[in-house]
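Memo to structure team: turn this sequence into structure tokens by end of day. - J.P.
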Amino acid sequence: MMGTFILTAAALITKILSAVYRIPFQNIVGDIGFYIYQQVYPFYGIALALSTYGFPVIISKMIAEQQEEKNEKGVRAVIHSSFLFLGVTGILWFLLIYFSAGSIASLMGDPHLEVLIELISVTFLLLPFISGLRGFYQGTGNMIPTAYSQVGEQLVRVITIISFSAVLTAKGYSLYMAGAGALFGSLTGGLICILILLAFVWRDNTRMFFPVRLMANHKEIWLRLLKHGTAICVSGMLLVLLQLIDALNVYSLLLKSGVSDDVAKQLKGIYDRGQPFIQLGTVVSTSLSLTLVPLITTAFRKGDKLEMNEKIRLALKIGSLAGFAAALGLINIIEPTNKMLFQNSLGSDVIAVFCISILFSSIILTVSGILQGMELIYFPALTILGGLAVKFMLNILFVSRYGTMGASVSTVIALAVMTIVLVIRLRKQFTFLFLSRRFYIVAGTAGLGMTAFLQLYFFLFEMLASESTRLLATIQSLTGTAAGGAIFILIIIKGNVFTPKELEQLPMGNKLKSVSERIN
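Reply from structure team:
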């Protein structure tokens, strides 16, 4: 559990950094520059998911199994075969994307992106070192190297993105060159990540990696990495794959609908402002709920149904409530928040609809984690792939008619379909009621209370304000967030949605329990 909390904390930091850096970056390069970056970013997101969520998890599991049997040769076999598999995988991904860069850029409708796609393809060559080393340490129960490498990688990447884009833009280079400079951060971050992991290898005098030779049972290890690793990666890449679909066809569909080149780029850049909102909105719910997944796995393997049911119910409460609060809260404050972060309130209606995705994404990631904890690995992946097909088709239908609003609506519908399928599958596994009718009533009341307060507060604020400036929008957003969040939490606590035992398992649980005792 300590290892899980360390990884959760590292994931929380890296996801916040990943969302927050987009704000100063957009402020530097503008909406068109932001569009350029976001068109290519999904390829980095795929490489990140492969090296963080999928392969290290499966490698660590195989190593842990061999260590339980005290089979050092088996551990070496896993390490060596995994490195070879990841090396082949990384090279294949690199070759595929590098030599398809021109075709991908043409499919996107912007040939100028070819060089940027070629640049980002190099990150896949780092895959064997990052995934292999992380998987090894996680398999031995040491989560510190993975946590340090994740935070270090993201920190160096963000610094590179902001500094390169600022310098290149100030010196008058094109926005495509500034985008290339920003994407170079994926390489600097990846190299720092490898150096941090190698520092742990050197410090611990680890000799498990040498000499690298092919073991007899590599086929079994390769098959397991291919099947299980890919399935877990797909679940971890949900938001990135949605971004990839938008990158492939939203801009080109806007062009086909008659929108001019520069306007289409700006519209896509404004639409992409929604990505930081989605990332920040889902990070809290998924980090909190997925911390419980190892406990669900342990209870499942022990056959302790009571414990497993309790943890599943708590994970669903956290995931759905946090997702609901974040989605509804952002919809209420989207206009001043959009202006606070991105200098103006353009596209607020499109982003507001897009924010509904936070609720469904939170539930999808939570339920997927629960099913994986019960060793149902493939169903979440297949469901997500099916939902992505729905998203792709709906984009074709909606974007030509409704522009970027159509892209937002198609995302929400696709995620809603995934959510329904996953929840039905989870319900088939159990006979007990996950969430009571009282839960929905209290959650709805909290949402209405928060919305009523925020709408009244903003109405009075705008009446008293002489003009709408970015500073006033910042004050409006921050105070509204704090007050709205407090009202939501107090109503949830007053409604006894969480039992005292459940409150103790949340961050600052003792304080929440104390508040609950006072107001009840």
